[in-house]
Structures are given as C-alpha cells and as structure tokens.
Structures
1.
Amino acid sequence: METRSNHVLVGAVVLILLLMLALFTVWLAQLSGGDEKEYDIFFKQAVDGVNKGSPVAFSGVPSGQVTDIALYVPDPQFVRVRIRVNSDVPILEGTTATIQGVGFTGVSQVALDGSVKGAAPLACPSDGVSADCPFGVPTIPTKQGGLGAILNTAPLLLERISTLTERLTELLSDRNQESIAGILENTNRLSDALADRGPEIAATLAETQMAIRRAGVAAEQIGQLAATTNTVLAEDIRPVMANLNKTILTAQRSAESLDAAIGDARPGLQAFSKQTIPEVGQLVSDLRQMTEALSEVAEKVNRGGAGSLVGSPKLPDYEPK
C-alpha cells in the first residue's frame, strides 16, 4: 500500500513538472513573438524553392522567416505567403517583396526592399480586417524580379527561341544555301571586275576631283560677279533711279498745274460754247446766203450785161402774121 502511494506521488510530481515546462515554453514563445511582426505576401507566380522556414531578407540582411504557405482560396492564381520578421525591420509603405534564388541549390528566399525614409509603416486599420488586410495582418505588395521574372518570361522566351530556330532552319535550307552561294559567287565576280577596272576608276575619280575644283572656281567667279553687280547697282543705277524719280515728280507737278489751268479756263470755254459758237454758226449761214446772192448777180451780168441789174429784161418784139 505504501509503495502504491509513492508511485502516485511521483506521477503527480512528474505531471506538475511537465505542466510547468509547457507553460514556460508557451511563455517563452509569447515573449519571443512580441519582438516580431507578421505580414502576408500574395505572389501571382510560382513560389518554387520557398518553404516553411525559408529565410526572409531585407536589402540582403536576414530579418525573418516564412511561417506559412497556402493557396489564396478566393483567387487560386495567387499564393499566400505568411512571413515573420523582426520588429526593428523598417517595413514601410513602398516596401515590395520578390523571390530570389540562393546560389544553385534550388532554395529560394523572400527578399524585401524599397522602403523610403519618412514613409509610414505598413499597418492594418483598427478593426484589423480590410481589403489590404484580408487575414488581419498587413500585406506587402510584390514585384517581379529575379527568379520570378525568369520563370514568368521563360515560356515566352522558349517560344521565341523556337520561332528563331524554325526561321534559321528555313533560312539555311538547301535552296537558300544555293542562292547564297550564287550571291557570293556574283560578289566575287564583281570584286574581280572592279579590281580589273581599278585604273579607270582612279582616272574617273581624278576627273571628278578636277570637275569639283572647276565648279569651285566657277562658284567663286559667280560670287565676284554678284559683288560687281551689286557695286554697279549701288553706284550707277541708284543715281539714275533718283533722277528718274525727280523727273516723274516734276511731270506730276506739271500735270497738276495743267489741271488747275483747265479748271480756271472752264467757265470761259463754257461761255464760248454757249454764245460764240451759235453766233459763228449764224455768221456762216449769212455768208452762205450772201454768196448765193452774189452768184445770182454774176449770172445775171453774164446773161444780160450790166443793164440787167438796173431794169427788168426787155420783152421780145411781137410780129403779127
């Protein structure tokens, strides 16, 4: 009976010690967790090489680790990665996350950078849940870079390499190779022909140089002629133009004087046309009548002599039968 009581006592003591050890462990976990902060990262790409416990680096400095990886159920194309970092790491607005490979081991880490001095720390609203904090912790935005960028662009790169290979295969087909060989042969012939005509080409180039020099001399002479023409215009033509302008001005003044004289004589001309011209017409009419009368007198004198002007003409004698 006494031995049984000892076993019960020992068992009770062991259970109490285990319970105290568990409580102490939980207390240490809570104490250590108070110096760390958790964040969520939603990667729209494969997270190969990232596992629970993978390191988290801020600007290359180890700062925490990955605590959870899971698919984001509302949108399965995203992978949610929960990280825990030291509280003294400056996770500010503008901080971004990428996946970087570590050496050639196939292991990857989450890299953080982009914090700007003076920016506000990433935090959730007071209620703890929002569009930016769907799981109650702040969300760090992502950017493509490193392994993620390579993995995302790998299919496009492979497609372009395949297309380039196909085009190179078509370019290097038997028919194209024959064409290229013909082109090279024609090029060699052309080179040989140019080499044979080297002296002629040299002579042509020499003549071209001479022609260019002559053209330069002609251009210089044309410039001198233009300068001479400008001098002649300045010394001879301009004085003549000045005299011509004076003559035109004098003629204009004479025309103005003539217009003034005509204006002054216009009343006399009007009186001449209204009075003198009718009188002259009447005088001409009277002269015409006088001329007709004198013609009749002369005709009478010619017929009957001067006596016909005094008396009436003599009647012929009448003789009875």
2.
Amino acid sequence: MNQDYPIGTPGTPWGDAEKQEWYARQSKQRDYGNDVIRRIDHLREQFDVETYGELNYDAKSYPLFVVRSRNWRAELPTVLVTGGVHGYETSGVHGALYFLETEAVNHLAHFNIIVAPCLSPWGYETINRWNPDAVDPNRSFKPQSPAQECALIMNYLSKHKITPDVHVDLHETTDTDNSEFRPAKAALDGTTNTNWNIPDGFYLVADSKRAEPEFQRAIIETVKPITHIAPADDSGCLIGAPMIQEGVIEYDGKGLGLCMGLTDARFVTTTEVYPDSANTNPVECVDAQVAAVRGALEYAAQEL
C-alpha cells in the first residue's frame, strides 16, 4: 500500500529543509527523567551506574547510562543488553530496566552484566524511530556513525575493552511502523512506500553470520509461556524476511549497521514484541522481553 507523507515532494529525497520541517513537528510526549533515570537511580545500591555520554539537541541534554555488575570478574563471560535503540519501542526500554530490577541478580554468578536501557532518549520522549537529524540509529552502528546515539555506546565499549559474549537487543514492531515510520522513510529517501505485514506476536531476528539456531530456539521456548509467538504470513515470512524456524528470521547485523552487529558476541539476537496485538498488554510485553533475556542467559550459561 502506498501512502503519501505530508513532508517533501514524492520521488525526491529530503534535503535539510524537509528534515527541519519534520523535526519541527515533533513534540515531547513522555519524560525520560521520570520514566528511565529515576529507575536507574534506584539501581545504584546493587549495581554500578556510569554515564557514558550525553546527547545535546537544541536546549535539551540527555545523559546516557549503562548499569553494570558491581563485582566485575575478568574470568566470567559478559552479557550486554540494549534497549531503546528505537526510542518509541517502549517495552525495549522498560524490559531492560525490569530485567535489572528483577532477574539480573540471578545471573551474576555466571556473567558480568552490562545494560544500556535507553540509547535514544530523545526518541523515547517524542516516540520516534529516528533521532532529531532524521537518522535511524538501528542502521547506523558503523565506523564514523552519523548517529551520536551509536557512536557514544560504541566508543564506551571500545574504551573499556568490553567484549560481550552475549548480546540481546530489545525491540518492538508496532502498527506505527506502517502508519508513520515506513511512509516517513520512503519520503526521506524519495522512494515509494510498500507497507509490510505486521506480525501478531513475539519473534526474533538472528544475525545471519552468527545464527546459533539452538540459542534462538531456547529464547522462543522461554517466551512461549509469557506471550504468543508470531506465525509466518502467507508467504512464510515475517516483515518480508523468510522465517527460518519458529518465530525467527535473520538479517546481516553488521552489514546493515544494526545494533545486534555492535559487538562480536557469539550469541546475539534482536527481540521483537508486538504491543498493538489484541492478545497482549503492556505488562506482558515487558515480561516477554525479560523472559527473552533470561532464556538467552540460561542457554549461554551452558555453552560458555
């Protein structure tokens, strides 16, 4: 289905004027300080909290945080959990925080844990996929990244020589992908938009270069008691990609500049929750994200 977008000329990529017009239309809809920083502050008794950078957009600054195991042990494998790469994907942010609040302590004997709960706080506040420069952070994890959101976490991991063995990146696929973000991207690129079928349920995106099918399967099995797994569409696909096993598709993480390509972790996956399903609710979506991380760590603990 083609959709017009109110900014730009069809068939012509956006220039600076169109990007500024898009940015001017955005407005704050929720509060990063209250929703995220406040919860991070409550974690300081159990974990080390570090600021790894700050985003400055106009008059607003956003400090960026990682939450780390207090007793870091060089002999243990390391797990990285990232959320809010796409700020509008709510359960990614809240799932990362709830994992820290509830589940993380159960794995400290086996792993060093580091969590970046909200990589894109401006996107969180304005409910956006892009950053203010109309750049998609989840296509920008590459050298000389055009997105500060990506460059700052990449620099932090490099500076501290953190090389995760497990990386779980928490995402959602929402109805607004079709109603807003895919039409906006087509307008930005000067192309024709074709919406995809939104999967009804939870699914995973594996890295095609590090597929680890049994790892992906273990996560799906852990999530199943919490929420339903997305079935393939009539073409055997999820969001246009072939389903390679129940609830799993794959992309080239590093080639596409995805967050799951951020590290060389052996075990890596991107979660996708569908919060707009009639068969779920916000609490269940967050619980599914936590279950996915738990399933990933329980499997990896046997293999590493």
3.
Amino acid sequence: MALFDLPLEELRDYRSESAEPEGFDAFWSKTLQEAREHDLNARFEPVDAGLATVDVYDVTFAGYGGHPVKAWFCVPADATEPLPLVVEFVGYGGGRGLPHEHLLWASSGRAHLVMDTRGQGSAWGGGGGTPDPVGSAPAFPGFMTRGIEAPESYYYRRVFTDGVRAVEAARSHPLADASRTVVLGGSQGGGISIAVAGLVPDLAGAAPDVPFLCDFPRATTMTDRHPYREIGLFLKTHRGRTADVLRTLSYFDGVHFAARATAPALFSAALEDQVCPPSTVFAAFNAWTHDDKQIEVYDFNDHEGGGPYQEAAKLAWLRDRA
C-alpha cells in the first residue's frame, strides 16, 4: 500500500488523544510490588547449542504471579568481566525460538537475554516454552482481548510485568553490567520495551522498532490488520463495550509509558506500515520526554521496517550507550 497515514511533517508533531487513566502509576506500582513478593529465582542452566563463539544459558525466572518464564541468555564465549546488557522482547505470536537465532548481540560483545512471551510462540520462528496459566472471560482468538474486561485481568498486565522481571533476572547474572542495560524489540517486542522503559527508571537506552501497543484509540480505528483488528472484531460482537475496553487499554498504552521513560531512545517507523501505522509509532516517540531521542524513518516499507538496516543503526547507536 502507498502512504496512507499523515504526511511525515505532520507525524513529527502528532500527539495522541489517548487519555491517561486515573491511577496509572498506582496501578503499576501495585502490580510490580505484588510481583516482587515472589522470589525472582533466576536460574541459568548452561546449554550446548553447538556454538563456538557464544555461551548459551537456558533461563527460568519468576514473572507475574511468580509464574515461570523462559528466556535465553547468550554471552561471548571468552567473557570474564561484566558486559553491557541487551534485553530483547519478541514480536506477536513468536517465542524465544532457538539459541542460534539470537547471535547478533552476543557477537557484538554484549550479554543478551531474549524473553519468551507467555502463551505465545506458536505462530512463527522456533517456538516458545512459557505457558500463561491465567484464564480469562470470552475473548476473540489471539491475545489482544484476553482479560480485556478490566486492567487487573488484562493479558498485557502479565506480559509487561514479565518484561520488568526479565530485566531484573538478566541483571542478576555476574556477566551483566546492570548500569549499561538496554531494552529493545520489534512490533510487540517494541511495545513491551516501551512499557519496560517506563517502569524501570535506570536504563541506559531503549530501541523499539515499529512498536505495537501504542495509541490504541487511533490504531484500533485506523487499521484493519491484525493484531489490532482483534479488538474491533471483539467489539463487533460485544456491542456497547467500547468505552470500557478503551479504558482497560489506556493502562497499557505505550504513549503513557513513553511519557515516563528516562532513558535515551532510538525508534523506527515505516510509512507504509499497516500493522502499526506510523502515526501510532510517532505518538509514543513524541511523548518520550528524554532529550536524547531519535527516530529512523523507512519511507516505502511496511511492517518489516528497516530490517537489517535498522540492526546496523542500533549497533552504531549503542556504541556510545551500552
């Protein structure tokens, strides 16, 4: 599809109409406090993945509700001192996959943890291994409407909490330099990284690519592509619940987390992206309050965004930060 959203000059000034809910900070403070009542219990089990230049650990830690969450932790094979740390979150439907799918960041001389997304990991890639033991009221197939009847029960309350705990787990490893921690990911992973950046105050950076889960009021009415379309199809059946659903989503909108982030940021957006329309990405970027922020724009790309070009941009950007 050709350009369908606002012109680039208008995107650079665009502000979301997403209203911050009352008690946003109290909700997340209570959520994380409850999660931390469970022992993090981060375990790193060495794995022979057949790789000569990277050491791999199979990680399990306690996420939301104390539920076990899986991850891979990779470091350069010759590492003996603490390294800059990259914590990565994956796109919608994917899981942590297999270790050899995640060589970039350890190959750049960093410690790298990639978190499984609970309940996902069966749509693409090498799969996942983290169940979501929490049920929900009736929902549209997918994850976007699970527990959407209230913020307390919404699926992404658990996922974002897992993301914060993933940072804590990765920082507990002796080869991780906690003071040089960066969070990143694409699409859903970008949305999770924005949320974590808004909840963890001492990060060295955040690099969300074509992030999902931002500016829900606009996204849900602008695109008919999944996953956002799951919300519209849910409301097509459950007539009259739009206000309640948008209230729940407001507690998980990347725009509000971006306004609380205190780390430098490198975003990316694609102007033909029908999954995460560029205005929704700019909504989060423009809400980001740290002065050290920049956004790479890919004029003629859809949701693949910058792909390997953006990876190169992140490698260059991280040289001065982690």
